[in-house]
Specification:
Shape: elongated
CATH superfamily of one domain: HAD superfamily/HAD-like
CATH class of one domain: Alpha Beta
CATH architecture of one domain: 3-Layer(aba) Sandwich
Strand order of the largest sheet: 14-26-25-24-15-22-23
Oligomer: single chain
Helix content: 40-55%
Length: 737
């Protein structure tokens, strides 16, 4: 299976994106397709039977244009829309002045006077309208193609309305030219309506487009974070090169005041880097040899040399942008509902407009009045506002989360986060830093402390578990040379085993003793270590306990405040850990967590989550993303803390780049405000249509209030603009402290 994201030009409303999405999903070889109206792109999963050219042809078949593979840089391209709007605006004013000046008491041009020179007046209006038909050709082409594919959209409504008015006006123009019913025919000309409707639709779409671009500001900022050049070290010389010239394993130089050019690893020097753009952490981070650096970080005070590891699309920034773009391409349940409503809305409007037209004629109204009402209904009831209500708010919120170092992988996650009522936290590496230190060692054979730790460090070097870091730090600090380890095997939820110097060595918790049928005669020492808040590591050689090591950890500085704030929000907080109960409860009491489930292996963690879900709970699991993958996948929403690298490979739904647990509070708050914003948008979209459609039909005609097509076009633009501006209010969200 392959996946590609293509930029699509020509989509103007939800009916456009929905019809394209349905059409793509019907094509043989397309596994799944999602079309994003706001980002103007199509995310397509397809098999080997199709090529990119085939996919682009599918898009063209529906009346849209593929601009190739999606890149954020495409958003910066210049176009001529503004110039066209100005030129056609002048022409629209002339047409409007020509047709309506006599109605509002403005001076008229004698040669174009409606009463004195009806022929020249009519011909001038006709030729003044023709350029607008050319200007709106994209609308007509899209409308016809979508109607042909049985997926009518807003373009279809406008096309039908404009050409109905235009051809009716041409018919009356012929009557004027031959002198038949001259004055009545002149009064039944609607050329100016065609021109003004098309102009206001174009103007509205331009305003929509510019407003929607503001929703992508956070993504654009990310794209522009990385420098365009780098300093490459060649021998003793330094040479400035473009980013495209940098290759993997090149040694690059970064001096104070410069930005890191690509993701890499420091090979020489120490410094402090500002990584706020990716983590949200305002404090500088100290970096030394072997530490990873991320492209776009600002070097504050030191000289460093670093090896290029990830370049181009592999970089963290590219992964983040791709992550947010893909999240925006997923559809929240509330958006799917709006899309379904919008999909039925256009056919319903077509039927309603035609029935109204026929009823007007049957009730004795003139063809002119009937046609005016028909066109007004088609124009005023545009489903644009309805289609924009959800995706605009989602894109703004995705960008907002990204800006604050919270990366949400799907729109559904963002929608459902506020529903969470139970939050489970792993302990080691999540509530604590995971920077474990060896606190105390009991040796039960002739080996000294360093020899025992060397044995454990050799085996632990084969794993990424947080406890392994404690032994790695000890080994580096005391310059211990590790033993060769063979036949390494992980014992899930218990520990590790391997062969060192021909003997089987096991390290792990006390559950390991039960598995190996070894009697625990060290419970007194174990209890002592647990009471002191240590995690326990047993060391076993063959079938004999040769050591017991206590490892301690430090609680994250923001963990207690995060727990307090979550409890104030009414969330139940539970610690779910594989560590021993005494140690777990000691840390839980300090943090204010009353619920503790300890001594559970990964498989048991998933059972706990499933049990809570069966009770009707909406569960969020927070882990370090290393050993909690099953739990993160099982929970309703999985959240992992992360050091900022390899984020795309993470198994969670949400990644906290700053490793700050208080960001969970921010996520829940953004989710709550996003859903409220979406509901407001949907209300105004529905309210607008509920009000305007009856007026267009003529409910208020007895009171002298009639909606003509030009006013309908303006009202349609205002409805979409209301939704856009309301969605942009989300950008004012501030993180609560």
């Amino acid at each position: 299976m392959k996946k590609i994201i293509l930029s699509v030009d020509g989509m103007t409303c939800s009916a456009c994106s929905n019809s394209l999405e349905k059409y793509l999903n019907k094509q043989e070889g397309v596994i799944n397709a999602t079309v994003n109206l706001v980002l103007a792109q199509a995310s397509i999963e397809y098999d080997d039977s199709l090529t990119m050219e085939d996919l682009e042809n599918f898009i063209r078949d529906m009346g849209f244009e593929s601009l190739g593979i999606y890149h954020m840089e495409q958003e910066e391209k210049k176009d001529k829309q503004k110039l066209y709007l100005v030129l056609y605006g002048v022409l629209a004013f002339f047409v409007l002045f020509l047709s309506m000046s006599h109605m509002i008491g403005f001076p008229t041009i004698s040669f174009f006077d409606k009463m004195k020179h009806p022929v020249s007046y009519t011909v001038c209006l006709f030729f003044g309208t023709l350029p607008f038909l050319f200007y709106g050709r994209d609308i007509f082409m899209g409308g016809v193609k979508n109607f042909y594919h049985k997926a009518p959209n807003m373009d279809t409504l406008v096309t039908l309305g404009v050409f109905s008015s235009f051809f009716y006006s041409v018919f009356n123009m012929v009557l004027v030219l031959i002198g038949h019913n001259l004055m009545q025919a002149v009064d039944n000309l609607y050329f100016e309506s065609c021109a003004i409707i098309l102009y206001f639709i174009k103007l509205g779409r331009y305003i929509d487009q510019k407003s929607k671009e503001k929703t992508k500001d956070a993504l654009k900022e990310l794209v522009q974070i990385t420098p365009t050049t780098a300093w490459l070290k060649k021998g003793e010389k330094e040479e400035e090169v473009t980013i495209d010239e940098v290759k993997k394993k090149d040694i690059l130089v970064c001096k104070p005041g410069m930005k890191i050019a690509v993701d890499g690893v420091i090979v020489k020097g120490t410094t402090h880097l500002d990584e706020a753009f990716i983590t949200g952490e305002s404090r500088p981070v100290k970096k030394k040899e072997k530490d990873k650096v991320v492209a776009g970080s600002m070097n504050l005070d030191g000289y460093i040399e670093y090896e290029a590891v990830k370049i181009g699309k592999e970089s963290t920034i590219s992964e983040i942008v791709q992550l947010v773009v893909e999240a925006s391409n997923t559809k929240a349940p509330i958006q799917r509902l709006a899309d379904q409503v919008s999909g039925y809305f256009v056919p319903f409007l077509l039927i309603l407009a035609m029935l109204t037209f026929l009823c007007y004629l049957l009730l004795g109204n003139s063809l002119s009045d009937s046609l005016t009402t028909f066109v007004s209904i088609l124009v005023v009831a545009c489903p644009c506002a309805l289609g924009l209500a959800t995706p605009l708010a989602i894109v703004v919120s995705e960008g907002l989360c990204a800006k604050h170092g919270i990366f949400v992988k799907t729109s559904e996650t963002l929608e459902n986060a506020h529903k969470v009522d139970t939050i489970l936290f792993d302990k080691t590496g999540t509530l604590t830093y995971g920077n474990l230190k060896i606190a105390k060692v009991f040796s039960y054979d002739k080996r000294k402390e360093k020899e025992l730790i060397k044995l454990v460090a050799s085996l632990e070097s084969k794993t990424t578990h947080p406890i392994a870091k404690a032994f790695q730090c000890y080994q580096e600090e005391h310059h211990l040379k590790l033993d060769e380890v063979n036949q390494v095997k992980t014992i899930s939820g218990m520990g590790l085993q391997g062969v060192i110097n021909g003997k089987k060595i096991f390290v792990g918790n006390n559950k390991l003793l039960h598995k190996l049928n070894i009697k625990n005669e060290m419970e007194k020492d174990e209890n002592q270590l647990q009471e002191e808040g240590n995690s326990i590591v047993y060391v076993i050689e063959e079938d004999t306990i040769i050591g017991l090591i206590g490892v301690t950890d430090i609680v994250r500085e923001n963990a207690k405040n995060a727990i307090t704030r979550l409890k104030k929000m009414g969330k139940e907080v539970i610690m779910l850990t594989g560590d021993n109960e005494k140690t777990a409860k000691r840390i839980a009491n300090f943090l204010g967590i009353s619920g503790v489930i300890a001594n559970v292996i990964p498989q048991e963690k998933t059972k706990v989550i499933k049990t809570l879900q069966e009770e009707g709970r909406n569960v969020m699991m927070v882990g370090d993303g290393i050993n909690d993958a099953p739990s993160l996948a099982t929970s309703n929403i999985g959240v992992s803390i992360n050091e900022g690298c390899d984020i795309a490979a993470d198994s969670s739904d949400v990644i906290l780049m700053q490793n700050n647990l208080e960001q969970i509070v921010s996520l829940l708050d953004i989710s709550k405000k996003t859903i409220r914003n979406i509901k407001q948008n949907l209300f105004w979209a529905f309210f607008y249509n509920l009000c305007m459609i009856p007026i267009a039909i003529g409910v208020l005609r007895p009171f002298g209030l009639v909606l003509n097509p030009m006013i309908a076009g303006i009202a349609m633009t205002c409805s979409s603009l209301t939704v856009v501006l309301n969605a942009l209010r989300l950008k004012r969200w501030k993180e609560k402290k």
